[in-house]
Amino acid sequence: MKKVFNPSDPFKRLIKQRFERWLTARLPANNSFTLNQKNIFIFPSKFGLQFLILGFILFLLGTNYQNNLILFVVFFLISFMVTCLLLSYQNIADLTLTANPITAQFAGQDSVFCLRITKKFDRGQKIDFYFQQPSSALKSVIKDQQVFVYGLSKTRGWFKPGRVTLRSTFPFGLFTVWTHLDFGLSVLLYPEPLNNGMPLVSASAEQTNKGLTNFSPGFEQFSMLKSYQPGESLKSVAWKQLAQGRGWFSKHFEQAQGGNVLLDLALYKNLDLEKKLSLLCFQIIELDRNDCRYALKLGNKTIAAGHGLEHKDMCLKALALYL
Question: For 22-71, how does the pLDDT look when each residue is reduced to its tens digit (9 = 90+)?
């Protein structure tokens, strides 16, 4: 479908760029913010503008007909609105927001960013948190003086969701209090794991000592029979035992002793790069879950065989940042 050119689009982009530059100069990135008159903005809401128009119409009627009762109502409404203005500011003022450290996550899933809230008295009611450029359909969650804001990216590598917007119309919706805060949030996204049954490759001890240069196909040895669980692959079903009327069993295998598993990007043929990395990501997670030793080769870079959480994180990070 051909996109229709809108003459106002360049003007909107110019305003947006100017506004972003102004925000960057006024509210530079920081790990922690205390809300005050320097970083809080207040404007009448749509309902507040209608309230003002109503007050103005009543004022015209009161002065035209010299009706003191109508003028009294007008002055009461205006004083009420000024009170709401002060309460709206006090509700969000003096809140301190601090960004918590963020652990690496996976692309294609909703990434969670945590902010710690420190407040005085009974403030911070009915505040909405979301990213200035929303990317996730999940709404923020406030729990135990912490707020969890969600962002979504389908691209591996470093994900920067941008500024966090705080918005409130407390107490009566006459004013909108808001701010855009840049906590410098960023998170490393590993490739999205892609379930696969690709064959593994292992090396003998002699080949391992030579630097993982020549590898032979890996193999598995039969370990035991276990009761079949719904959802397991039909390839693992012990059909011979089933035919003998012994019931449903699944065959389990284990890797032969003495060989380290090699995960080599070059072994995945006829696939695009992102799919290859997703397949490797799934294999790393499964090997770590089974406490297997494995090495990773990405082009000219090789990560020596190992196991454990630190080794897993090192391999996943290499996948996330691979170019």
Answer: 999 999 999 999 999 999 999 999 999 999 999 999 999 999 988 999 99
Evaluate whether 308 touches 301 at the Cβ level (below 8 Å).
no
List the beta strands (DSSP E) in 182-307. 187-190, 201-203, 216-217, 220-227, 249-255, 260-264, 294-298, 301-306
Which of these, 207, 232, 233, lies nearest to 218 by C-alpha position?
A: 207
Residue 173 is classified by DSSP as S
The angle, 0 to 180 degrees and rounded to 10, between the axes of the packed helices 273-289 and 309-320 is 180
Q: Decide if 191 contacts 107 (C-beta within 8 A).
A: yes
Q: Which two tokens stand for residue 120?
A: 């005085």
pLDDT number for residue 230:
73
Amino acid 218: pLDDT: 40
Strand partners, 189: 105, 157
Residue 211 has pLDDT above 50, yes or no: no
Tell me: pLDDT of 176 over 50: yes
Most confident of 59-68, 228-237, 260-269: 59-68
DSSP string, 54-83: HHHHHHHHHHHHT-HHHHHHHHHHHHHHHH
Which residues are registered as beta bridge partners of 31? none
How far apart, in whole angstroms, are the C-alpha atoms of residue 19 and residue 26?
10
For residue 115, the cross-strand partners are 99, 147
Torsional class of 270: left (φ above 0), alpha (ψ -120 to 50), beta (otherwise): left
Phi, psi of 186 (to 5 degrees): -155, 145
How far is CA 264 from each of CA 96, 192, 216, 257, 304, rounded to the nearest angstrom? 48, 18, 12, 20, 12
Angstrom distance (rounded) from CA 33 to CA 281:
37
- For residue 297 the two structure tokens come to 């080769």
* Closest CA relative to residue 296, chosen from 281, 275, 310, 309: 281
